[in-house]
From TrEMBL:
Keywords: ATP-binding, Carbohydrate metabolism, Kinase, Nucleotide-binding, Transferase, Xylose metabolism. Residues 1-242 form the Carbohydrate kinase FGGY N-terminal domain. InterPro entries: ATPase_NBD, Carb_kinase_FGGY, Carb_kinase_FGGY_CS, FGGY_C, FGGY_Carb_Kinase, FGGY_N, Xylulokinase. It is an enzyme of class 2 (transferase). The keyword Amino-acid biosynthesis does not apply. Its EC number is 2.7.1.17. Transmembrane segments: none annotated. The gene is xylB. It comes from Amylibacter marinus. This is Xylulose kinase. Pfam families: FGGY_C, FGGY_N. Gene3D superfamilies: 3.30.420.40. The record marks D6 as: Important for activity. The active site is at D235 (proton acceptor). Catalyzes the phosphorylation of D-xylulose to D-xylulose 5-phosphate.
């Protein structure tokens, strides 16, 4: 048995998988995000440890035989978070998360430095790790001076289990400290951010073994002392492993808190000017590129809170079949935007609200706005040479048939739903644990069985293209205002 642990922004999911890749048990635990100031987004790493304890306890109780047969576990983790530890391994402050925009000024300063984009392969976005440490230097100098190690969120859990400071290539690629083409820490990038090589964790591939659990961890969680703790990777890279998206021409769209349109690449082909991310994959000698929007299902969460409803209730207001674009256009820039604008300051907007506009109209507009933003990502990816003919669809937003139909038509691409699409990250992490235990890449990372194919509605492609052109014209106007 193998265990995949998916450390997300709102919770931790654990998935037990048998040796043939079949899911046999799951558990989850939830936690919140602290936003003490506008643009801030933080979590206390302790909530992740508490969630891990709960997930492991529930799996051990509900699936005792399978848990006892565990040979390896691995991680999928939210990217970019800065977990700053002192020399005792204690967090110095709450983790600054991926969707925190406080370090926009520091990110811009780093991005302007000579060689920054050439070495890292990316724009230095405010959500990345390096500008967060520069912000600490500027605003929390006493804490900055005490930083012994900087870990990514999932790596704090592996440190908790094994006592080792380790990260993998895919997560390290989102720090702006990694030479992404060479797959090693860059002394030049570290120096630009006033950081040192000794403050970085050891670098491994996502399918490499970190070690085995500490004795006290085995006693607390009921783990065998021979269980292999495997490095794992960044959430999107590991989701790509879970969906078998590892070779050129393969891609997926993820409707989670953020929205991602990802293409696997067999070689390193960065184009930072497109605001597309070019990162190492979680397996050796592979890379991936993705366009990222910061508010996908988070846009629905916001609308639900505003209307004193729930996302599920709002989704029921729109029918399964689409009939054409809404008279309202929504810009989903509630937390700023990455691809293609690289703009931490831009805000969201409804354009075209009328006296007769209803919650159903606003829900439709939000779903379409996310779809239009994903088309921005698709256009940017195509500029890098990515060629996609269909996309696997994963994430919580795929529960809405209306949303899927809208996105398929807006992108003019088939969307395919895997049988276990809800477990992309957790399944991918379990697959990495299988690779570490000797499984073959081709079989362990096979594409999943397809549950359903969502095709574009041909008669409405032109109408949604017109809707997208209207959407694309609005960003410059809103920015000017």
């Amino acid at each position: 048995m193998y265990l995949g642990l998916d450390l997300g922004t709102s919770g931790l999911k654990g998935l037990l998988v048998s040796h043939d890749g079949t899911p046999v048990g799951e558990a989850s635990a939830h936690y919140g995000v602290q936003q003490p100031h506008a643009g801030w987004s933080e979590q206390d790493p302790k909530v992740w440890v508490d969630a891990l304890s709960q997930v492991l306890k529930n799996l051990r109780i509900d699936h005792a035989a399978e848990f006892a047969a565990l040979r390896g576990l691995s991680f999928s983790g939210q990217m970019h978070g800065a977990v700053c530890l002192d020399d005792t391994g204690t967090p110095l402050r709450p983790c600054i998360l991926w969707n925190d925009t406080r370090s926009a000024q520091q990110a811009a300063e780093l991005d302007r430095m000579q060689g920054q984009r050439d070495i890292s392969g990316n724009i230095t976005f405010p959500g990345f790790t390096a500008p967060k440490l520069r912000w600490m230097q500027d605003n929390e100098p006493d804490l900055f001076a005490m930083v012994h190690k900087v870990l990514l969120p999932k790596d704090y859990l592996s440190f908790h289990l094994t006592g080792r400071y380790v990260t993998d290539m895919s997560d390290a690629a989102g720090t702006s400290w990694l030479d992404v083409g060479a797959r090693r820490w860059s002394k030049a990038l570290l120096a630009a951010g006033n950081m040192r090589l000794d403050q970085m964790p050891d670098l491994v591939e996502g399918c490499d073994v970190i070690g085995t659990p500490l004795p006290q961890i085995c006693a607390e969680y009921g783990l065998s002392p021979t269980v292999q703790v495997v490095a794992g990777g960044a959430d999107n890279a590991v989701a790509a492993c879970g969906t078998g998206t590892v070779s050129q021409g393969q891609g997926f769209v993820s409707l989670g808190t953020s929205g991602v349109l990802l293409a696997a690449r067999d070689s390193y082909a960065p184009d930072a000017a497109t605001a597309v991310h070019t990162f190492c994959h979680a397996i050796p000698d592979r890379w991936y590129q993705m366009g990222v929007i910061l508010s996908a299902t988070d846009s629905m969460n916001w609308l639900a809170r505003t209307l004193n409803s729930t996302p599920e209730q709002l989704a029921e207001l729109v029918v399964r079949d689409i009939s054409g674009p809404s008279h309202i256009t929504f810009l989903p820039y509630l937390s700023g935007e990455r691809t293609p604008h690289n703009d931490a300051d831009i805000g969201g907007a409804f354009i075209g609200l009328r006296a007769h506009s209803t919650p159903a109209d606003m829900t439709q507009a939000v779903m379409e706005g996310v779809g239009y933003a994903l088309r921005d990502c698709l256009n940017a990816l195509r500029k890098t040479g990515a060629d996609l003919e269909q996309l696997l669809a994963i994430g919580g937003g795929t529960k809405s048939a209306f949303w899927l139909n809208s996105i398929a038509t807006i992108l003019n691409l088939d969307l395919v739903l895997p049988d276990k699409g809800g477990f992309g990250g957790a399944l991918g992490a379990a697959r990495l644990a299988m690779l570490a235990d000797g499984a073959d890449i081709k079989s362990a990372l096979a594409r999943p069985k397809i549950q359903e194919t969502i095709k574009p509605t041909d008669a409405l492609i032109s109408a949604y293209d017109t809707g997208y052109q209207r959407f694309a014209k609005l960003y410059p106007s809103i920015k000017e205002l």
